[in-house]
Fold:
Amino acid sequence: MYGPSVSNSTIDAAPPKLAAQTVDLRSDTVTKPTPEMRRAMAEAEVGDDVYAEDPTVNRLQQRAAEIFGREAAIFVPSGSMGNLIAIKIWTHHSNEVICEELGHINQYEMASMSAIAGCMPRTVRSADGILTWEMIKPLIRPHIYYRAQTALVSLENTHNMAGGTVYQPRHSDEICDHAHAAGLKVHLDGARIFNAGVALEKTVAEITGKFDSIMFCLSKGLAAPVGSMLVGSNEFIEQARIYRKMLGGGMRQAGVLAAAGLIALEKMPGRLQEDHDNAKFLAEGLSHIKGVKVELAKVQTNIVIFDVKGTGRSAAEICDGLGKRGVLAGPTDSHSIRMVTHCDVNRAAIERALAEFRALITA
Structure:
């Protein structure tokens, strides 16, 4: 699944024992489907989606395409699969994909672009995860037959490991314009694109119009239990259906899942501002804890990444201590921690998390 970005220490650790009133800030992937979603799932009209006969899946795909102003969309089991399908379509073996160094497709998708699509990432590091054309242009390979050729640029909006930072549309549009002029395609890893839309006060169609393909997740802040969407032209989605099947993503009576996805798509974007407000509240509270450093200006959406080096403890030690107090978070490196707000964590829970953090540091 297109899951939370975590460090190796988090992956290797034993699953946490959850307290009765656990405040889970590890990721917005831990969200539970709403009661309305559960009812819709139980009552969903279904068919065989491999035959394109599931009416609920078809409605979800049609609605996603409408919202993004595109010709078509396809429901996929995970965002990682959606990204890989797009890479497969836009590239050939031995091509390169330009992306930000800490981007999800480079760091957390099992090197699938190399192992399966036969491509290599060509990366550049950005302090805030946001690329510019000036950063991208020098990475484009010259047209020499013995050099690997650049085929695709992939951007991530919001950028997970930069703390949920957002591309301004003028910057992403400029990248698309120049990339197209250079004969390159541009894919958007928009796992949390609705968070970006809320932060920018623009529709997702407005901020993604120049991309050749877009992936977005239903199972993060939108709280559906499973699934992501890939949107683009009719021709692109026809190709995507082939690769989805090749990768094992052909689902049968998937309307049970799509029913929740429809509600996620229609109902949940309107409440994302609450998560952003809670993230800012969390960041402000953390900034007042001795030894914690937070760049408040970077907290633009629902992700807070902060430095704990000043506490004299490692990120893993702090997360372990918080876990024992019923607050779950994840280290991103030796002295950095990520917390993510979502619909299952209200303001009172944030206040409790801050109180437990203060108590841990002063203990």
Remarks:
- The longest strand covers residues 150-156.
- The chain has a mean pLDDT of 94.
